[in-house]
Amino acid sequence: SVRQDKVNKLVRQKDKERSLGAGLLLQYAVQRYEKEQSKENSNSSCSGGGEEVFFTNLDFAFVYEAVQEPTPFTFQYGPYQKPYLKSIPECYYSLSHSGSYVLCAIGNCEVGADIQEYKDEKAYLLAKRYFTEEETTNMNQGSEEEKRQNFYRLWTAKEAYVKLTGRGLGQGLDSFFVDLE
Predict the structure, then answer these.
(1) Span 68-87, pLDDT tens digits
(2) Which of 84, 86, 107, 144 has the CB geometry, 3.0–4.6 Å to 74, for a possible disulfide?
(3) What's the DSSP call for residue 121?
(4) What are the angstrom distances between the C-alpha of 52 and each of 3, 32, 47, 92, 103?
């Protein structure tokens, strides 16, 4: 499967666990999504508010038990290689994992989601390299802790956006502006 191939390419055990967990969480989310869609019998236009977010730590026992008859997904890929579920064309998703957490956002329109573990006290020093000049200036307001929080808020917003567009980090995080207000 695509997920297994991805896992096999990873070196670190924790990365393998997160990737497998993301696949399991996607199975769970799709099952819930399909169930809700069949109840509502809704059209596939983007509602702007019908998205669900599933978030868990690496204890996947409850997700594993909740997944009924996991099905291998068949994926198709957009122009920038963003994956889509071939068998459920009105179902869009975004996966992210960091630290001991995995996030899956799912909805009936394009979604982008990102999660980042607070790792480095001085992570905000990377801002000059990845953010616009205005974002860097805005981010550097306040105490060291506020700068760090601003950095992670910007980073996750920007990563979620490039996942939404499907262009990924190749789009360049400094190619667009995010206002923290």
Answers:
(1) 677 778 889 988 889 999 98
(2) 86
(3) T
(4) 22, 10, 12, 11, 11
Give the C-alpha separation, 84 to 79, whole Å. 11
Query: Quick one: average pLDDT of 172-181?
Result: 86
Average pLDDT over residues 106-124: 87
- Spatial contact of 75 and 89, defined as CB atoms under 8 Å apart: no
Count other Cβ atoms within 10 Å, centred on residue 65: 9
Q: Is the pTM of this model over 0.85?
A: no
d(CA 19, CA 6): 8
- Could you write out the DSSP letters of every residue in 67-119? --S-----EEE-TT--EEETT-TT-EEEEEEETTEEEEEEESS----------
Return d(Cα 50, Cα 175) in angstroms, integer.
29
76 token code pair: 């198709």
Contact 94, 88 (CB under 8 A): no
Q: What are phi and psi of 44, to 5 degrees?
A: -95, 10
Q: Which stretch of DSSP H or E encloses residue 53?
A: strand 52-57
CA 18 from chain centre, in angstroms, equals 12
